[in-house]
Amino acid sequence: MAEVTVSQLAEVVGAPVDRLLGQMKQAGLTHTQAEQIVSDDDKQTLLAFLKSSHGEAADAPKKITLKRKTISTLKTSSSQGKKTVSVEVRKKRTYIKRDPQELAAEELANNELSEKTEQELAAEKAALELAEKAAAEAKALAEKEAQAAQEATLDKSQMDPEVLRQMAATKRQEQDVKDRELQEAALAAKRAEEVRLAAVDSNKKTDDKKAKPARMHAEPDAEASAEARAGKKKGPKVKELAIKKRGKNRGHNIRNIDMDEGNMRGRRKQKILKLPEGAKQHGFSAPTEKKAIEVAIPEALLVSELAQKMNVKASAVIKILMGMGVMATINQSLDQESAQLVVEELGHVAKLVSGDEVEEALETELGQQEGTMMPRAPVVTVMGHVDHGKTSLLDYIRKTVVAGGEAGGITQHIGAYHVETDHGMISFLDTPGHAAFTAMRARGAKSTDIVILVVAADDGVMPQTEEAIKHARAAGVPIIVAVNKMDKEGADLDRVKNELAAKDVIPEDWGGDVQFVPVSAHSGDGIDALLEAILLQAELLELQAATDIPGSGIVIESRLDKGRGSVASVLVQAGTLRQGDIVLAGHHYGRVRAMNDENGNPIKEAGPSIPVEILGLDGTPDAGDSFMVLESEKKAREVTLFRQTKDREDKLKRQQAAKLENMFANMGADEVRTLNVVLKADVRGSLEAIQSSLMEIGNDEVKVNIISGGVGGITETDASLAATSGAVVFGFNVRADNKARLLVESEGLDLRYYSIIYDLLDDVKQALSGMLSPEMREEINGTAEVRDVFTSPKFGQIAGCMVIEGTLVRSNPIRVLREDVVIYEGELESLRRFKDDVNEVRNGVECGIGVKNYTDVKPGDKIEVYEVKEYARTL
Question: How many structural domains is the chain composed of?
Answer without folding.
Answer: 7
